[in-house]
Every structure is written in structure tokens, then in C-alpha cells.
Amino acid sequence: MPQQSFGLGIIVPSSNTVLERDYTRLGLDGVSFHFSRVLNSEDTIEQLTAMKESSREAAGLLGHPRRMKGIALGCTGGSFLEGMGYDESVVKVMEEASGLPAVTTSGGVLASLRALAVRKVAVFTPYDEWLSTRLVTFLRSNGFDIAFHAFGFDLRTTLQDDCWQPINDWVAAQVPDDADGVFISCTDFGWLRGIAPLEERIGLPVVTSNLATLWHLLRTVNADERLPASLSRLTQVSKSGLRR
Q1: DSSP H or E stretch at residue 109
Q2: Which residues, 6 or more positions from 67, have their beta carbon under 8 angstroms from its beta carbon?
Q3: Residues near 96 by Cβ (< 8 Å), separated by ≥ 6?
Q4: How close are the terminal C-alpha atoms of the chain, in Å?
Q5: What pLDDT sits at residue 66?
Q6: DSSP label of 4
Q7: Which of 61, 108, 231, 239 would bridge 235 by S-S if both were Cys, CB 3.0 to 4.6 A apart?
Q8: pTM above 0.85, yes or no
Q9: Which residues pair with 171 in a beta bridge?
Q10: Are 80 and 141 in contact (CB under 8 A)?
Q11: 162-191: per-residue pLDDT in tens?
């Protein structure tokens, strides 16, 4: 019997070149993706905080099509910037505007790390130091220990499709022995097909912003089984916490 088909709305930072490509190429059975954009030409406090209000209009528009089941703000910095609870306040704005369940990337990261029982995480970002430090503060305020923190990866080295090897090499060389998981931040950074090879290489679960956003959104609409289990350790976790 065919699975029910439905749509998911994704709000994308205007500078992002990865989310639309990553999600549509997965070819998830019965899932269509619908995208809207909000301004993000540079990572400044002004632009990142403005995303919260911009997401109101974007979510409202994404709520119009038939068969839509949920909406995500696909931006990590735009959903953790103001610290603990900020992700939840952005969710409230999107849900009020659209009438649909909503998630943020940062909320998805927290849920993903908890589902994998990761407590001491190695964090990797392409951000400037100030923004990366705010991410660390956000994670700590939500109960996570930081085993390692690296920032400033050059996104220009991974512009081609499936060019995840430079990221994996950068991460694998720096993960400390006492980490029990890895988080690679930024939705313009973190190629889905590179997660499983990195997990095999370092022997630890790996969460990326793109993976966490989509997994959390599908889980919220009770459809996370649509993700292939081969994608990552996270996509092998069922709602009961057991591996598939």
C-alpha cells in the first residue's frame, strides 16, 4: 500500500546553496519539499535576529499549499542566537503564522543529540569566532558538555555536489578521545551523504544541521521512517529509542 504523500515547507537563508539540493536529492517516498527564503547575506547579529520576524511571513506563505504537514526554519545561527529557549520562540512565530507544526534547526540539533544519547560533543563550524562561541553557549545552556570546538572552516572547498571529503578530513583529524558525538553546524555546511562515512571513520555518531532539521521535522509529523536508515546513526533511531 503506497504511503501517504505530503509536503514539507523549508525556510532557507538567502545565501544557502545546499538545503534545496540536499533534501530533494534524497528522493523520499511521498515527500515533496517547498522552499521560501529569508535574508541572510552575511552573518551579523542584525540579519540573524531579523530572521525570526521574517520567518513569520515565510511560514504563512508556506502554510497555504494543500497537503502541507510541517515547516522548518533551516538556519542554525538564526535559531540559537539569543540563547536557551530562543529556538522555541521562533517555532511559536512560525506555528502562529502557518497553523502547522514547526521546528528549527537548533531545536532539531538538541533533539538529535539527545536521541543519540550524546552528552559530550565535539563542535565544528564554518562561523566566525563570535557566532561559533554563541553556539557553544547555547549547547551548554541546554545541558551538553563541549569536548572540543573548532570554527572557521572554508565553505568554498565544498561547493561541488557530494564534496564532503574536505569536511570529513577536517573533523576526523581533530575529534578528541573523550567526545561521544560530533555536531557539524550550519545548513550551508554538512553534506548528507558524507555522514555515514565519517561515522564509520571515527566510530561516533555525527549530527549535522541539515540532517537534524529534516529528521526533527519528519519526526514531528510522524514520518521519520521515510529517511533511509543507511544515511546515519540518527536515522536508525526509532521513536522508542531503539535502532531499526
Answers
A1: helix 105-115
A2: 5, 6, 7, 32
A3: 56
A4: 21
A5: 83
A6: P
A7: 231
A8: yes
A9: none
A10: no
A11: 778 888 999 999 999 999 999 999 998 767
